[in-house]
């Protein structure tokens, strides 16, 4: 049996001396796909660009590739840093890197910015080649399956016939599940974290309120804010604040801020004053987000979330849906996550078991709510790493002559 | 023992033939108080008007009066109708009326619009006599205790030395608890429904986001929208949507709307389209509220909520706080209420027991979230009625020669 060690390229390890668990400096790549993509809404994108990053090395057998699917506000930059000066690493740096659960010494990790995004891939803020102006509200509405189809094109480009695993949290988990139905032969493992087969009415209601905050901002200009030289920052900030509260748990917020006063006194009177630490934190979150994220993308992503309904074309029967899957599943959820509660993951596990699809499920204790899937957590890391070690072992096994 | 039956005046029963449980047609009353009111913020209101309604008749001993304290968006019109044409009765009509838990055949019920409100009592939309223009953002910030003090003046006006009970849900429950500390001798029973001794960080965060939605609406004009001939309707609508979701439970929303589509199809594409029933419902709720409620009042009320902290002046010790109470307590909470969860009521019950204050507590099964305190519910009605029957019996007892 071969024990070939897959090492990341030297370029990616150049600053790893500081942090042996980091993939180091990474350079985003991009590709423009010119084969038209038929979308679920009935429209077609004639061409589109996807921005992506890769960490680790694709082995000779091309069987160690892992796809990372991002959530609502995510992007391609999942691990490492873009420069030595970069203050923050990628959004999932705690889980991707040498020796980490998604071990870049073992896997070739691909992370992209989804179509419709605002970090370099074609989206509402991109120029519509037919008009020479930003797409804005004319950008097609996307469904999760459209992302899966565009991700499959990226796999083709990279020469990956079958993913060792497709992995995602939240909206990313929906993409991973959809992969198992759209391309059952193209993945061996599906890792679905803090996700659901469909949103609850409450989730839809929060998303709708966030969209209303954006679209009712006069600077939204019916989605044509870029053409008008405006930006509905205030609306997007409120939308982000709504999201942010719901991604944290009541306990998590309480532990982080309690009812601590910013000034240490209750004697403030001015209407505009920020009194509680949690207010200050939320305003900062909203403001900084609204300077970096495209409002039309936020609307598009939340609508894709709302519309996702895994079993809809299968007579609303998740067992029938998952009967098409050919991969193994690993599910994880977090005890204090109330937007994608453990109950939603148990529903997935139940459906998979009834469909005779192999599934492991771990419910992780955490006070951090939905955000837990992004944050360091001992048990989560151990469970995740243990599963991925088995996935990696299979890749090595397949290397055997 | 006298068994004098207290009957509401004929005028109030005039249309009761249609609905024997209704207090009938009611006429709001108002009084302008000219004795200055010193406020917790350090400022003073030289004069102010309170609008109120009364149901039932004050007995000779004036010992059967009950005060209703309203919640965030409530007002004085708690029961009955303002005219025969009135389509909807007062906000707590299910619980106030002849034979209802707050039985107007037994009690003289007083319900007011709080100071700072926008339904007739002096508030930010009233004219500041010193400027001749609406108060707007210059209206003083109020605390729950300010409401209690102004309510005590109303009691004086009506000749009520001691309430048989002070009753409130949510923010109204906070007023009831504060009554027991500010005027321990002026109430015999304190009925606190779906309330808390202080808000959690999550609750503050939701309120802060709602306020941000209002204040970031350009039509807010730093709170001077009335002087500018504007109204931040969009911001207030979003604020109300946020509130509305959090007053309902996930299950409740699910049962009411599920993921039902408005058009019965997933094939809609327009960005402005309303697809899910829950979206349509929320938009309607937001729009209709924003046409009738004053945005500055919404800010004032949510800030009073955020700042309420029952035990703050008692060394953060609720037991020390409640040791000042001289009344009996009745607490109720609802299983699916996640903004004022049963846990919060249990904390109140624990503190009262440790302070040796008599307390009854009922946790009511309901899928309706925080809103449950306003809605018909068999067990809630039975428990509430049983408690109030004992309160009424005491009033009769005190009538004895």
Please explain how this structure is put together.
Two copies of one chain form a homodimer. Chain A is globular. The first copy, chain A, has two domains: 10-198 and 308-399, Rossmann fold (3-Layer(aba) Sandwich), CATH 3.40.50; 204-300, Rna Polymerase Sigma Factor, Chain: A, CATH 1.10.1740. In chain A, helix 2 (144-157) packs across helix 3 and helix 4 (201-215) packs antiparallel against helix 5 (233-247). Chain A is 34% helix and 13% strand. Chain A has helices at 10-13, 144-157, 171-182, 201-215, 233-247, 250-257, 277-290, 295-307, 318-322, 342-354, 378-399, and strands spanning 29-33, 37-38, 44-45, 48-55, 65-69, 96-97, 102-103, 108-112, 165-169, 189-193, 328-334, 359-364. Chain A is of the alpha/beta class and 401 residues long. In chain A, strand 11, helix 10 and strand 12 form a beta-alpha-beta unit. In chain A, strands 1-4-8-5-9-10-11-12 form an eight-stranded mixed sheet, sandwiched between helices. Chains A and B meet through helix 4, helix 5, helix 6, helix 7 and helix 8 of A and helix 4, helix 5, helix 6, helix 7 and helix 8 of B. Chains A, B: Pathway: Amino-acid biosynthesis; L-methionine biosynthesis via de novo pathway; O-succinyl-L-homoserine from L-homoserine: step 1/1. Chains A, B: Belongs to the AB hydrolase superfamily. MetX family.
